[in-house]
Amino acid sequence: MTTLIASSRDYGALVKEDRVHSSIFTDEQIFQDEMERIFHRTWLFALHESEIPKFGDFKRIQLGRFPVIATRDETGKVQLLINRCRHRGAQVCEAPRGNAKRFQCWYHGWTYDTKGDLVGVTGAEAYDENFSSTEHALPKVPRVGSYRGFVFASLAEEGVTLDEYLGSTKKFFDIMIDSSPIGEIEVKPGVLNKTMYRGNWKQVGMDGYHPHYVHMAVFKIFSKRESTIGSAVGALHIEDPFADVSQSRTRGFANGHACLDFREQRRSHAAMAIDDLQRSEDGRQYVADMIASYGQEHAEELLAWHGDPHLGLFPNLQLIHDHVRVVIPIGPGETQVLMYPVFLKGVGQSINEKRLRAHEAFYGPAAAGSPDDAEIFERTQRGLLADAEPWVLLARGLNREQVDEDGSITSCISDEITQRVQMQEWKRLMTAH
Ligand code: FES
Ligand SMILES: [Fe+2]
User: Fold this and answer.
1) CA-to-CA distance for 1 and 249, rounded, in angstroms?
2) Which of 153-162, 241-250, 418-427 has the lowest mean pLDDT?
3) pTM here?
């Protein structure tokens, strides 16, 4: 039995180069410290700008322990307001999304506008002239930034810039966005899959080792398909993208970001992806528009990549296949995952329909992909609670890592670089003062 954590709270000792201590997935105090030291300190993904396109549009989001209202004010600016009434602290907005020019608190009726300014106090005569409405606006999230429509927030007044935080991962965002011929995507706040699983938030995504095992059944079915339009797993009937002999790679970046990099593997299937599209009118138009926008060579690789960056931004965003995935930790053994399918602007309707059907086939609630992931996370959590042998091994491929020109670390697709860089960032943030 281990007493390592409870006695010392030495978080540095819980993450080694090739293994981590299971308490980081199960311990309640560690979870609370993760909220303070990670989620309230670093950059978090908030929402995509297209989710609140018009004045008054709003969406309720969760940033660490902070409930937040994202609004579009009358100047067109995205505001991130802490959803906490300045009277006695009630959440002023309960609807998950909608359009409103005012937010009236349910408790005693104070009213705020889309900038968070207090514009109405019920029974105002009970306050004297010392009461100032301007001093009682909804608090704003201290730092907000965006990259090509992806809005990020930091609850810390100071820290690295968003540009530094994203670093060389920006070119992977571009893979998703530039799969639209006009370089614009749309995320619809009401169109999503929601999953709640009884497991830790750090389990989600970026594992190139598990597909052959957890997803064996669905892979067998997909390998019989000839069409790859919007495919979640590429051209499975030609080549296995999760084989270590393939050109697929794991990749780790600064700040704990990681990806399963399928670019080279898919580039070799560009002709097939384009042939597939050429079979329909919308597809032919899509190919022509992509070539007109990006040139022959880049258009071909963009079409081969299917808009899939397969990128994990530490700690709460993943861009996987054709969706934006938000990870919301609820407790050490409870996590919510929101998956928003991405719609391409500037393409025929049937292109987006096929992408949506492909998304549903793997990630939907009745699909055979994501539900199996949630199941394995729950089984893992139950195993991790037994801390007789408390170390979790992340050593796979440590002996064959290479550093690439952009500074990222890379290795074979099943290697655990992705887990190692996330855990090293976890250690850095949890031990920083
Ligand atoms: S708590 Fe909001 S008006 Fe009283
Ligand atoms: Fe999976």
Assistant:
1) 37
2) 241-250
3) 0.95
Decide if pLDDT at 266 tops 50.
yes
CA dihedral (301, 306, 307, 311) in degrees, to 10, reads -100
Note the pLDDT tens digit of each residue in 114-147: 999 999 999 999 999 999 999 999 999 999 999 9
The residue contributing the CA closest to ligand 1 atom 3 is: 108
The bound ligand whose nearest atom lies closest to the alpha carbon of 321 is 2
39: nearest Cα among 159, 218, 199: 159
Q: For ligand 1, what atom is nearest to the CA of residue 106?
A: 2
Domains in the chain with CATH codes: 45-147 (2.102.10.10), 168-431 (3.90.380.10)
User: Is the CB of residue 418 less than 8 Å from the CB of residue 206?
Assistant: yes
**Measured in angstroms, how far is the CA atom of residue 91 from the centroid of ligand 1?**
8
Considering only the C-alpha atoms of the chain, give the largest distance between any 2 of them, rounded to a whole number of Å: 76
- Tally the C-alpha atoms within 13 A of residue 159's C-alpha that lie toward its C-beta: 24
What is the token pair recorded at 14?
A: 């819980």
The protein residue with its alpha carbon nearest to ligand 1, atom 1, reads 88
Q: Does the Cβ of 87 fall within 6 Å of ligand 1? A: yes
Read off the tokens for 330.
Answer: 């609820």
The CA 116 to ligand 1 mean position distance, Å, reads 14
pLDDT greater than 60 at residue 225:
yes
Crossing angle for the helix pair 281-294 and 349-363, to the nearest 10 degrees: 100
Encoded tokens for 101: 């020019």
* 58 CA distance to ligand 1 middle (Å): 20
pLDDT digits (tens, 9 = 90+) for 358-395: 899 889 988 888 999 999 999 999 999 997 899 999 99
Helix spans in 155-295 (H): 162-166, 170-177, 211-214, 216-222, 263-267, 270-277, 281-294
Q: Cα 255 vs. chain centroid, distance in angstroms?
A: 15
- Residue pair 332/29 in contact (Cβ under 8 Å)? The answer is no
Burial class for 252, CB neighbours closer than 10 Å (0-12, 13-18, 19+): buried
Q: Name the residue at shortest CA distance from atom 4 of ligand 1.
A: 108
